[in-house]
UniProtKB/TrEMBL annotation:
The lineage of its organism: Eukaryota, Viridiplantae, Streptophyta, Embryophyta, Tracheophyta. Residues 531-817 form the Protein kinase domain. This is Receptor-like serine/threonine-protein kinase. ATP binds at K561. Residues 39-168 form the Bulb-type lectin domain.
Length: 820
């Protein structure tokens, strides 16, 4: 005690000169609180002996209490038959949780916590599986456990040494007398009632207190969005008994006081929590009053935290795209001091149970076909004081609002525009980091397709009710004539008979192709849901693709591929595509929904990919960000791996290129167009066939009369990967330097010469991640080896892309044949 008192006085002396006058009052209160514990009665323990157990049950009595009963440790039921091992304030109505052990893995009724005879504190489920344990290097020396009146759970040795304590293993909350130091972190929960790890954490790192965010709870990349800016001069965060939260310097002086509202520990409960919205807040609760259970907030401004959380900048430079409090296509708005996520008109939540995941577009995107620009098919939803500030791709000055609107209508990539005082900014999809606030001067216009929802729930029922009502009214009005009533009754019977017959015809089950979950459509049905094939999306050698909307409750858009001038080759392509696609089921392959073989008609119906082909973005002015391009490469590789190794029938695609990779509304990549696919039986690994594919992506063996294997797809993928890395086509005859015209050759030269930065010199994100650039270029070089046997399998390519397998140094792609 004398040593600690002396240390406290030294702290007082060393801090005097470093504290500004306006903080002296707070400083003296801190000094008093520093001394207070030594003038109060020592902490009492309520021992928990070895062999003690707790069983998770629904009566809420399965806990161990502290001596004052202000804190309890045990099981709290969070969901139906789901229990959390936790510490909570036990004398307030809502039993506020301040520490928990198994937030990512709730346990069922009957699970057991035991302080075993060997000193280990272990949580096991009903099957005896260990879910959590208090890890200590000296469990054999444990004499007992205790939950203290500070809220600290401890394991204590025979000579009263603390061998383990929950204060050193915090979850999302710290309590008075608790200190964070070293690499200890606070992890925010996912939501108010979901105790799994969320997107935010707080830690002391390199002498600064930092708040970090991830793209998602499963992401390992952390981005600093707030920092104490203490220049590496602190290694502790102290929450003292009087309610002061501050950062001391390494020499003991105070650098920053984060909370200076002094309260009496005898009169108030306190806690400081990193909440699920990413804000670190300090709360107090009066002990003398049994309130409604809500904690009045004492302080909530950490460092440079904006008062409006929707304006928090999450991440660094371009990495923060989509990382606001709300996800893509949604916007953030403050309500009662908390951020809420909402969708603009024409959009709905991707997951209604988790609004932070963003919104999906409920209408078909604008066609990029210049012959059918569809400018008359869209309108603008006006949103005042709104902006999506990280979706900008083009800006105009000194223009009118009408000019701004028309320019967006004529641009198929434009999802919204923001306008103020002659300034017009175009936004691309998906809309990112949206927020509404009175401080925003912009008015944002969100582009929405007219009549995007042709079906409303309950519409058929309401029509039936309306029809029934009309018949009833008519009967009453004509009741003066028995004869007319009889006629009316007969007419009513006929109307309902016809209506029932029509309903039964509509509801009868469709023909499904045996062995596959494909609907067989009639030609008339397809004409109806494509509006007589009125909206063409594209065309090829044997087919055209049209946009349509299924006549179903969901009103889902579809892509309809109609084959024409069917000759032998076209017929073969149709059969190949049905056989190939119909047997697949993978998230990175475009799904075939149905077909039509009525008479001479050959038609396929696919899921609709709202964002079109990868080529339309990759080679456009707007481009795709570095991390998104790499994700597309990984997703394409997974799709090919499925085709090559996981299908019941092995499939060679034969035409992998950006035009064949489609993007859905969340920019997930899916492989399409299996018309050129060559199917192999399960016991067959090579075949000989005519040349297929597209110039520039075709493997050399096609021209050497060599057997064709799945390695032709590996070659094409390698070219695609180089195009994704460099955001340019493999063949560019307009390149100023002749050595740069063929991307594959130029990329290998840059790799050998140590000049890979030339490939991505205009991409800041890629330039900041040159280690990854080098890895992906090496993978691409392995894929484009002219000797097929040297190319890795798609499984190994996927593992290299995902980082599960190291990438070795590749040889010169042409070295094998040049040495023959």
């Amino acid at each position: 005690m004398i040593y600690n008192l002396h240390k406290c006085l030294l702290f007082f002396h060393s801090s005097m000169e470093s504290i500004p006058p306006y903080l002296l009052c707070s400083f003296f209160l801190i000094i008093i609180s520093c001394l207070m514990p030594y003038f109060t009665q020592a902490q009492t323990y309520k021992n928990i002996s070895l062999g003690s157990t707790l069983i998770a049950k629904q009566d809420n009595n399965s806990f161990w209490a502290s001596p004052s009963a202000e804190f309890a440790f045990g099981f709290q039921q969070i969901q139906k038959d789901g229990f959390l091992l936790a510490i909570w304030f036990n004398k307030i109505p809502d039993k506020t949780i301040v520490w928990y052990a198994n937030g990512n893995n709730l346990v069922p009724t009957g699970s057991k916590l035991e302080l075993a005879r060997d000193g280990t504190l272990v949580l096991e489920d009903t099957n005896g599986k260990q879910i959590w344990n208090a890890e200590s290097n000296n469990t054999g020396s444990v004499s007992y456990a205790a939950i203290l009146d500070t809220g600290n759970l401890v394991l204590v040795s025979r000579d009263s040494v603390l061998l383990w304590e929950s204060f050193n293993q915090p979850s999302d909350t710290i309590l008075p007398t608790q200190t964070l130091q070293g690499d200890i972190k606070l992890f925010a929960r996912y939501s108010e009632k979901n105790y799994t790890y969320g997107r935010y954490n707080m830690t002391l790192q390199e002498g600064n207190l930092e708040l970090h965010v991830t793209y998602s709870p499963r992401d390992s990349r952390h981005h600093v969005y707030l920092t104490s800016e203490t220049d590496g001069n602190t290694n502790q965060l102290i929450f003292n008994q009087s309610g002061f939260i501050y950062l001391p310097a390494k020499n003991g002086s105070i650098i920053q006081i984060l909370s200076s509202d002094a309260v009496s520990p005898q009169e108030f409960y306190q806690r400081a929590i990193l909440e699920y919205d990413g804000v670190f807040r300090h709360y107090v609760y009066p002990k003398s009053t049994i309130s409604n259970g809500r904690w009045p907030m004492a302080w909530s401004s950490l460092f440079h935290m904006p008062s409006n959380i929707c304006f928090m900048k999450l991440g660094q430079s371009g990495d923060d795209r989509g990382m606001g409090p709300c996800g893509f296509n949604s916007y953030c708005q403050m309500e009662q001091g908390r951020p809420t996520c909402q969708c603009p008109e024409g959009y709905s939540f991707t997951d209604p149970n988790d609004e932070s995941l963003g919104c999906r577009q409920d209408f078909v995107s604008q066609s990029c076909d210049r012959e059918t620009p569809e400018t008359d098919q869209f309108y603008f939803q006006e949103m005042k004081n709104a902006d999506w500030n990280l979706s900008e791709y083009e800006h105009f000055q000194q223009v009118t609002e009408d000019y701004c609107r028309l320019d967006c209508l004529s641009d198929c990539f434009c999802a919204a525009v923001s306008f103020v005082d002659g300034n017009c900014t175009k936004k691309k999809s998906p809309l990112s980091n949206g927020r509404i606030d009175a401080s925003i001067s912009w008015k944002t216009l969100v582009k929405v397709r007219k009549n995007f929802s042709s079906f409303k729930p309950g519409r058929a029922d309401s029509e039936d009710k309306d029809r029934s009502t009309l018949v009833l009214i008519g009967s009453i009005l004509l009741s003066s004539s028995v004869f007319v009533n009889i006629l009316l009754l007969l007419a009513t019977i006929v109307v309902f008979s016809l209506h029932s017959r029509k309903r039964s015809k509509v509801l009868q089950p469709r023909v499904v192709l045996p062995g596959r979950n494909l609907q067989c459509f009639t030609y008339g049905e397809i004409k109806e849901f494509t509006n007589e094939f009125s909206q063409e999306l594209g065309s090829g050698n044997f087919a055209k693709v049209f946009k349509g909307v299924l006549n179903s409750d969901s009103g889902d858009p579809v892509a309809v591929k109609r084959f024409y001038n069917i000759v032998t080759e076209g017929e073969q392509e149709f059969k190949a595509e049905v056989n190939a696609i119909g047997q697949t089921n993978h998230r990175n392959l475009v799904q075939l929904l149905g077909f039509c073989t009525e008479g001479e008609h050959r038609i396929l119906v696919y899921e609709f990919m709202r964002n079109g082909s990868l080529a339309s973005f990759l080679f456009s002015k707007s481009g795709i960000k570095w991390h998104s391009r790499i994700q597309i490469a990984i997703e394409t590789a997974r799709g090919l791996l499925y085709l090559h190794e996981e299908c019941s029938t092995q499939i060679i695609h034969c035409d992998i290129r950006p035009q064949k990779i489609l993007l859905d509304d969340s920019f997930t990549a899916k492989i399409s167009h299996f018309g050129l696919a060559k199917l192999l039986k399960t016991d067959q690994n090579l075949t000989v066939t005519e040349i297929r594919g597209t110039k520039g992506y075709v493997a050399p063996e096609w021209f050497r009369n060599m057997p064709i294997t799945v390695k032709v797809d590996i070659y094409s993928f390698g070219i695609l990967l180089l195009e994704l890395i460099c955001c340019r086509k493999n063949l560019d005859l307009g390149a100023e330097d002749e050595d740069q015209r063929i991307l594959a050759d130029w990329a290998y030269d840059c790799y050998i010469d140590g000049k890979l930065h030339l490939l991505v010199k205009d991409d800041k994100e890629a330039m900041d991640d040159m280690k990854s650039v080098e890895k992906f270029v090496k993978i691409a070089i392995w894929c484009i080896q002219e000797e097929p046997s040297l190319r890795p399998s798609m499984k190994k390519v996927t593992q290299m892309l995902e980082g599960a397998v190291e990438v070795s140094i590749p040889p010169d792609p042409a070295s094998f044949f040049s040495s023959i």
